[in-house]
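Input chain follows. Return structure tokens only.
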Amino acid sequence: MQLSTNHLLGIKELTKDDISLILSTAQQFKEVLQRPIKKVPSLRDVTIVNLFYENSTRTRISFELAEKRLSADTINFAASGSSVSKGETLLDTVNNILSMKVDMVVMRHSASGAPHFLAKHLPGTAIVNAGDGINEHPTQALLDAFSIIERIGSLEGKKILLIGDIMHSRVALSNIWLLKKMGAEVMLSGPPTLIPTYIKEALGVQVEYNLLKALRWCDVANVLRIQLERQNQVLFSSLREYNLSYGLTRKLLNNLQKEIVIMHPGPINRGVEIDSDVADSNQSIILQQVENGVAVRMAVLYLLAGKKME
């Protein structure tokens, strides 16, 4: 089998078969990562540029590690220390890099649609979206799905709750697209000011502003970070008030009379959207998400490189 696309621009563009193929390939790579020798020659002689216009820790390290595990040649680019600071355009930057015979670009950018722009202008190069503005973060949704399946067996018919800053979260949008395609039910919970009014009808999700009711409904709760850096107006009174109404606490979980799975894409604001004793509990699969990110990104790079090298 092979992917139906030459790029990974977003979950919206993937088919259900594409998602299943990526997840099954990731399972094979996770088994590879358990071996004493974790490196495979799958992408030897393939050159990948990590093009990050935004700060990143987990995603960038995860992609770099995935590339090294696959034996790819990697070039790391940070906008802060490049000619971008001198006024160079995005397309000029990429064309200069591609003149060095690059096969793939992994890109994070603050502008929604930036990876799509590259794919349109550079059709011969595989583009991987590592997060674009408030649009999508497809590999995060894929690793979230992989982690859920690993813990509870499947996505079909499962009830998944996304809590928090839905409006500014590219993770939320990618998760909604993926979970709906794979047969899960999705509910959103958070302050009304952080949940777009159109989203219920547009994407076919449920909305519940009462967090306790939402938690009683779900099998899995994926807690999202409050993205203060993307908010250009005051959308809730204070972080303390947010924690009192929408913070995931041990007291709340003890009121459920059932055990649910806890997730978080990171970075975690402890004491704001989630308390430490919840994030570090046995119900949490946050560290497993980080671990699974490498295997999922290995799968994406491997499958896109294979598609390109046909």
